[in-house]
Model the fold of this input.
Amino acid sequence: VQLQASGGGLVQAGGSLRLSCAASGSIFSIAVMGWYCQAPGKQRELVARVTRGGNTNYADSVKGRFTISRDNAKNMVHLQMNSLKSEDTAVYYCKATIGTMVYWGQGTQVTVSS
Done:
């Protein structure tokens, strides 16, 4: 499984960005897709994830601001990020889980200027 993330960039505080992740390869059984972020000097942490059936989980820090969505037909997952804050600055990684296997995308930088 290969994951290609896109959509990062530089935005002012209060602005919006939309991240996308396209999955290719043996993708028919991807159970969970999600986004994680890693800020400098910090561990990678969950931002949001969505199951094949559409159940979602969000980090408390992004609830009400971020929305994750999944397009099973196109094998893509999106993260709409609104009301961005400087503390959202990080590298964002797409993750896919198939059974016990975990796959990561290459990461996309999100920088929020205050």
Notes: The mean pLDDT is 93. The radius of gyration is 13 Å. The chain is about 0% helix and 55% strand.
